[in-house]
Every structure is written in C-alpha cells, then in structure tokens.
Amino acid sequence: MAVQLDAVLMEILACPAPDHGTLEAGTPGDPEAQALTCRDCGRIYPVEDGIPVLLLDEAVQADGDGTQGPAR
After folding, report:
1. Residue range of the domain that includes 28
2. What's the whole-model pTM score?
3. Residue 2: inside a domain, yes or no?
4. Contact by Cβ (8 Å): 24, 5
5. What does the pLDDT read at residue 72?
C-alpha cells in the first residue's frame, strides 16, 4: 500500500539535503513502498507508522536501476 499522507503536508515536506527538493511517495523501483523519494537528489526516506523519517542519516540513495544503496 502506498504512503498515505495529507496532500497539504506533501506540499510542505522537502528533502533535508542542501538542495531541498520536493518529495514524492514511493521509490523509483516500487511506487507502493512506505517511503518518500526526493525528486532532485534521489534520496529515499522511510515512512514508519505513517510518520516520514526525514533524517539524512536514515536516507538511502536510489541507484540508477531503481534499487537502493547507501546515501552518498
């Protein structure tokens, strides 16, 4: 099941990385994943119990093939 967050909240949330990109639900390889992906840098942030964990230390980087690797 895809991430279910309020539409207004999704407009406000942004990646905490220096480039501050907007976030979208899911991951490149799994649009139903419980995660948010930065549209600019590709970092993936987990959503735990409906709460986005927007910490750079918790992020993973999407690889070019849509899989996940450690954030750089």
Report:
1. 7-70
2. 0.82
3. no
4. no
5. 47
Buried b (16+ CB within 10 A) or exposed e, 26-53: bbbeeeebbbbbbeebbbbbbbeeeebe
User: Domain for residue 1, yes or no?
Assistant: no
Query: Is pLDDT of 9 > 80?
Result: yes
- Specify if 47 maps to a domain: yes
Residue 25: both structure tokens together: 């639900």
Residue 49 lies in a domain: yes
Give residue-wise pLDDT tens across range 16-46. 999 779 999 999 999 999 999 999 999 999 9
- Determine the straight-line distance between the first and last CA of the chain, rounded to whole angstroms: 28
